[in-house]
Amino acid sequence: MTKKATVLLGMSGGVDSSVSLVLLLEQGYDVTCVFMKNWDDEGDEFCTQADDYLDVVRVCDQLGVKYYTVNFEKEYKDRVFSYFLEEYQRGRTPNPDVMCNTEIKFKAFLDFAMKMNCDYIAMGHYARTKTIDGRTYLLKGADPNKDQSYFLSRVTEEALAKTLFPVGALDKRDVRAIAEANHLATARKKDSTGICFIGERNFNAFLDQFLFTKPGDIYSYEGEKLGRHSGLMHYTIGQRKGIGLGGMGNGEPFFVQWKDLKHNRLIVAQGIDHPALYIKETWVSDPFWITATPTFPLQCAVKIRYRAKDEEATVEQVGEKLKVTFNHPLKGVTPGQIMVFYDKDICLGSGIID
């Protein structure tokens, strides 16, 4: 009798990981589920971890699968939350979800699985992998509206080779249909949005618990003093809402154009077509290539943030950094955010926008 391949599935309590469990069982894997506890939620009314864990229990009990909780709070605080705060302290806008995948789900969790002698780990991400000539490539998820390859763009090839993405080839509506057909407790559960440890709470108030906020002046790009800001870390490049300048000037909306940390000034530009909001090139630090370092100059598609359209660009290596020149000027290129590089459906890797 052939021994079943063993899989450790990361269960979030959502419909995607629940359906991943159904599919893995149908494919004949020996599956054990793990709920990762990454945040100390004691006394935290906004954290949904307790409810999410109960949904994991319901689904696993229904399908007759063993489950565990593994505590990665220390790893998360040291590797993800500290990075999150440091970037905001520098006036940048980080993406902790990318770092969580890199450091927790596909490093700490993978290490845990290998110590348990599992053959694979599995996740409910909308992404795919493909093996070509013995190398593992990361591909976009089949559903373009749910593709999560952006968040996996700094995961190593070695980790991806040991990972299964059961829902990566499906549309979200098909995932919901499978959940309904199997009467899963999570079939109609709303998708989670936002940063896991923020939840539904006020984002600025959360930041103010950990970082010193210094109000300052708002200036137009042309040099006119317009008002006051509540602290530069509360704003991001390209932001429109929440600036507090409605009705001024010609009545068009203002957008954050830059954050002048030296003088603690928020620089804004009025009108979506203001030329100062658009840039033709930018620098990217800490480049990471998943399968192989490409040949430069590289002609590829780039994504400057999750949900942004793919944009054509030329990437050149200059020392340890990358110079990225867009085919068309782009708005909202934000320091601290992840820029991801694509060759059609293949995710090549990423870097951090400077």
Structure description:
- The longest helix is centred in the first third of the chain and has 20 residues, at 96-115.
- With 354 residues, the chain is an alpha/beta fold.
- The protein has 3 domains: 6-181, 3-Layer(aba) Sandwich (Rossmann fold); 212-273, Adenine nucleotide alpha hydrolases-like domains (SH3 type barrels, Roll), CATH 2.30.30.280; 278-353, Beta Barrel (Elongation Factor Tu (Ef-tu), domain 3), CATH 2.40.30.
- 25% of the residues lie in helices and 31% in strands.
- The chain has helices spanning 15-26, 49-63, 73-89, 96-115, 157-161, 172-181, 203-210, and strands spanning 6-10, 30-37, 67-71, 120-122, 127-132, 135-140, 163-164, 216-220, 225-229, 254-260, 265-270, 278-289, 298-303, 311-318, 321-331, 338-343, 346-353.
- Strands 12-15-14-13-16-17 form a 6-stranded antiparallel beta barrel. A 5-stranded parallel β-sheet has the order 3-2-1-4-7, with helices on both faces. Strands 9-8-11-10 form a 4-stranded mixed β-sheet, with no helix packed on it.
